[in-house]
């Protein structure tokens, strides 16, 4: 998924409850962090406002453009603390180590194949200080969930437009992936102005699979939660939230 169309609507639909969780870990890790799949800097900018220096890597020029426009509106102090890099999370070299690396919003699921998931973990490992912390979250698909689903939501923009987003998902159990189709329709005074379609696949990864991959790469799993309020992991929760440490 390139986020070519979704980038400009990402923040409009992007409110999440993960900020406090990632901020606490980043501040505790002596204030320097690397975010993989930084997107519009939804998390990176609040972390920088809290005093953390963040390097944000992303492979979408569209998302990075949104992020740069947002950062330009911040104070000089905050602007100095955020550095964007275009790159692929499964193949990058930043020539520096971090005490904290994080991957929010199920972005790790963009690694569709096990090979890509392992390559990303190896890149994280190479960029993490010894005893450094790596935290991320994945979607958890409960077997009782229907194979296909769809939902629609709408938001008003500051310019008085209405954006309607429709999401269609279909799971492919045999390939451990889920296909996503997103449609955005922009209305003003009831008249359709624009319509965009964005699509892509995300991986379905189980808790046992990710734990095995992490341990094989050299990470120690410290905590597994079912949500950002740190509630105990449950097989039925919609999220897997992991905190790990480089051994
Ligand atoms: C769901 S968004 C999350 C954005 C941001 N981290 C947040 O939490 O709001 C996923 C982001 O990951 C980026 N991405 C997907 N695959 C990537 C890859 N292989 N390497 C780097 N970035 C990637 C996308 O371009 C997008 O900006």
Q: What level of helicity do the residues show? A: 10-25%
- Reading off the top of the CATH hierarchy, the class of the largest domain is best stated as Alpha Beta
Q: Catalogue the ligands.
A: S-adenosylmethionine
* Number of alpha- plus pi-helical segments: 6
- Give, in order, the helices and strands: HEHEHHEEHEEEEEHEE
The first-to-last residue Cα distance is: 33 Å
List the defining traits of the structure above.
Rossmann fold; 6 helices; 23% helix; N-terminal domain of TfIIb; 11 strands; binds S-adenosylmethionine; 247 residues; seven-stranded mixed sheet; four-stranded antiparallel sheet; 2 domains; alpha/beta
Describe the 3D structure:
This protein is α/β, with parallel strands linked by helices. Helix content is 23%, strand content 38%. The protein has six helices and eleven strands.
């Amino acid at each position: 998924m390139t986020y070519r169309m979704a980038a400009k609507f990402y923040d409009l639909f992007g409110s999440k409850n993960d900020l406090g969780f990632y901020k606490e870990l980043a501040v505790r890790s002596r204030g320097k962090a690397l975010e993989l799949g930084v997107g519009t800097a939804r998390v990176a900018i609040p972390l920088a406002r809290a005093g953390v220096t963040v390097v944000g890597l992303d492979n979408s020029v569209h998302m990075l453009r949104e992020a740069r426009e947002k950062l330009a509106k911040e104070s000089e102090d905050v602007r100095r603390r955020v550095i964007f890099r275009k790159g692929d999370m499964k193949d990058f070299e930043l020539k520096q180590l971090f005490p904290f690396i994080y991957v929010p919003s199920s972005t790790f699921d963009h690694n569709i194949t096990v090979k890509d998931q392992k390559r990303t973990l190896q890149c994280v490992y190479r960029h993490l200080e010894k005893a450094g912390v790596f935290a991320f979250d994945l979607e958890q698909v409960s077997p009782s969930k229907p194979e296909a689903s769809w939902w629609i939501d709408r938001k008003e923009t500051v310019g008085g437009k209405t954006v309607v987003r429709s999401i269609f998902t279909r799971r492919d159990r045999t390939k451990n992936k889920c296909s996503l189709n997103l449609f955005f329709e922009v209305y003003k005074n009831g008249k359709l102005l624009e319509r965009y379609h964005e699509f892509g696949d995300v991986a379905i990864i189980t808790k046992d699979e990710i734990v095995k991959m992490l341990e094989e790469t050299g990470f120690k799993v410290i905590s597994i939660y079912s949500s950002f309020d740190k509630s105990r992991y449950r097989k039925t929760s919609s999220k897997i939230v992991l905190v790990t440490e480089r051994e």
